[in-house]
Amino acid sequence: MNTQTITLYNGVRIPNIGLGVYKTKEGTEVKQAIKKSLETGYRMIDTASIYKNEIGVGEAIGESDIAREDLFITTKLWNDDQGYETTLKAFDLSLKKLKLDYIDLYLIHWPVYGKYVETYRAFEKLYQEGRARVIGVCNFHIHHLEHLMDNSDIKPMVNQVELHPMLAQIELRNFCQKEQIQIEAWSPLMQGGEILENPIIKDIAKKYDKTPAQVILRWDIQNNIITIPKSITSSRIVENFNLFDFSLTEEELQKINTLDCHKRVGTNPDKYDFV
Ligand SMILES: NC(=O)c1ccc[n+]([C@@H]2O[C@H](COP(=O)([O-])OP(=O)(O)OC[C@H]3O[C@@H](n4cnc5c(N)ncnc54)[C@H](OP(=O)(O)O)[C@@H]3O)[C@@H](O)[C@H]2O)c1
């Protein structure tokens, strides 16, 4: 097993796979999942203040003997905390809960209208102070990114969005590639949903003696998309990382591309109710 990294436009290297911990319970559940993931070889953990498990994430990191600089920890600013001063406060609280003195990747969780530009100014300060090595956004459409870039100094380095073969986000990916904004895929497995039963994915999986989940995550990696599958099941944590001993052919990648039908399991950011 072998993980790989992608170099962001500011020179920071980010692993191309990490463990997502949305809906993973604070305490023993999140600690066990992280412990298993670190033993398996994962080095990136994706949490958020709204997941309410940052304390457990911090404890799991603290109890591991992996050097801090070899880990890549992501957390996110929740919508209620958007605004300049409130962002700085929320960042400090996340750091405290995680028992860290810097965050590798700090993300705006959703593009709250009228607030995200001011919020991002605080992100720029945190970046300039070296307290966040990488700053970015989640759930930004092209129009949000354009607006943000027109009103800020430091281009976001990452955009984390819902992305899987049924929501391939081609236009956004092309835009981000042109702008050197790295795409990360959330809900890469459609939260364990219908994509895992898709006959095209299942056929390809059979050929390589892999699972549908592994084929989808491999499709992410070969498309230069960072992926953060969530699992609390030890065998799946191992399975989802076991991606580096096979390669999909160009024809297989194209076949998977035909599954794109703009289907979301989460909310469209333009329809999100921020009140
Ligand atoms: N920025 C955002 O707005 C945003 C939004 C949503 C998610 N995220 C991040 O993205 C991460 C991943 O997304 P997600 O948690 O929504 O969904 P996901 O990773 O697509 O799917 C997780 C679900 O699939 C199951 N699963 C995992 N591996 C599997 C496998 N190999 N075979 C079959 N089922 C499998 C898990 O079950 P078990 O756990 O029971 O094994 C869980 O129910 C989150 O944890 C979070 O860190 C970010």
TrEMBL record:
GO MF: 2,5-didehydrogluconate reductase activity; methylglyoxal reductase (NADPH) (acetol producing) activity
Limits of the NADP-dependent oxidoreductase domain: 17-259
Keyword Ribosomal protein annotated: no
Residues at the site labelled Lowers pKa of active site Tyr: 76
Signal peptide: none
Enzyme type, top EC level: oxidoreductase
SUPFAM superfamilies (UniProt xref): NAD(P)-linked oxidoreductase
Entry annotated with the keyword DNA repair: no
Family, per entry: Belongs to the aldo/keto reductase family.
Protein's name according to its UniProt entry: 2,5-didehydrogluconate reductase A
Organism annotation: Xenorhabdus beddingii
Taxonomic placement: Bacteria, Pseudomonadati, Pseudomonadota, Gammaproteobacteria, Enterobacterales
